[in-house]
Automatic annotation (TrEMBL):
CDD domains: AdoMet_MTases. Pfam families: Methyltransf_25. Keywords: Methyltransferase, S-adenosyl-L-methionine, Transferase. This is Methyltransferase domain-containing protein. It comes from the Bacteria. One of its GO terms (molecular function) is methyltransferase activity. Residues 40-101 form the Methyltransferase domain. GO terms for biological process: methylation. InterPro entries: Methyltransf_25 (IPR041698), SAM-dependent_MTases_sf (IPR029063).
Amino acid sequence: MDEIIYLNMVEMERNHWWYKGRREIIGKLVKPYLRPDMKILDAGCGAGGTMEYMSKYGSVVGVDISGEMVEHCRNIGLNALHESVLCLPFEDRSFDLVLCLDV
């Protein structure tokens, strides 16, 4: 991935109104169903903004097809795997909540 595109994606996911608003909406929609010990999958995690937000609700794992995005997530302390959402390396029912947003 081009370095400029990568940096723009990271910045946009952190600060753009769309991503901020989306995180707030998702939080409000799923909050009534959340427990502190939940296992959450962010399929197509990108730069990890949703993972960071959802981490207050449980243990979050992210997967993304972009090695650069996965590396970024890991560098900021998130648990991300370089995988395709079309062939996930998890057993059925491994997660209590799966998010797949804008993928």
